[in-house]
# Entry
Amino acid sequence: EGLSLGFSLFKDHILQTRNGMKQWPRENILKKDKNKFVYFSNIGRGIHQLLDKWHLVQMSIPKAQLYIIGGSYTGDSAKSKWINKYRTEHKDNKSIHFIPGMPQKELFEELETAYLTIYPNTHAETFCISALDSNYTFTPLVTSRHGALEQTAIPQANVLVNGMGRDPGYFDNFIPALARLYYDQDFYNKKVEGCKIITNDHISWKAVAREWLSIFSRLVGIPISDQTTSKAEDSINWVNITFNCRNTTLERVRRSRKCQ
# Structure
């Protein structure tokens, strides 16, 4: 977010490295439903704007189906109220589907068959794990060129639209981006290939452990043995498995209590 606002990083004092994620088996990756568009983020980060403009998406892509994943907020009655309001308002629209929050593995199963993840965000992301989740299942993401998304939603695999979801005229560019990915198969295939490249071991926790060791080795001037590298990979994988209770953002409050 700081970069997007023009702030510079003190690179001599800040250590930059990438994030990782737990990698689930990819089993139905080729069974994409071309009409399945998925939104899975905090309910207050663009869903209102997306629902308001969904009829325009359907004018461009008549067969499009919107799947909104999440919305069960045990710990946040205000957000529960909003998702229930949206369900009521759009209950007669057969192209909009509200799906309860789910564990990460089940989320991946939903994303495996999705054609696109669509996120007209109104929030200045500081990372956006949804970008990794989406690309890991070879699902391109259409979102905003703003905040951390400029770095995590890599253009090689995704499409970034200038501005944010609440900006006037934003959907004048967002909807054509969806349409191009839908109708231009070559363009879509290039984005899927980009997903494959950037998620090919690049985002595993073992790969992150190797990167950290390389950085530490360079900083202290001591070479790291293969045995140490192997132990570090095992350790960080154990930490990830032990504490990996992260589910969709919309279920985090309820699920986190079970992990404590």
Q: What stands out?
A: Residues 213 and 229 are 7 Å apart (CA to CA). The two ends are 30 Å apart (CA to CA). The chain has ten helices and six strands.
